[in-house]
Design a protein that fits this description.
69 residues; Serine Threonine Protein Phosphatase 5, Tetratricopeptide repeat; 3 helices
Length: 69
Amino acid sequence: MGDLDGAIADYNQAIRLTADIYYNRGLAKQTKGDFDEAIVDYSEAIRINPKRVSPYYNRGLAKQGGDST
């Protein structure tokens, strides 16, 4: 339909949601005690959206072997 700005906005939203999916999966893995796998997911969430603080925080906890918040 020629709405390139609208398409870009939709893509940006999809990317943001993808970062949320990796973060949430990391939380589930961390809660389960799969710290190494949680770290992988948090790192991917950070790669996609490096301005979000919570993946950094929880990745640090996972590296310590601690519970997520």
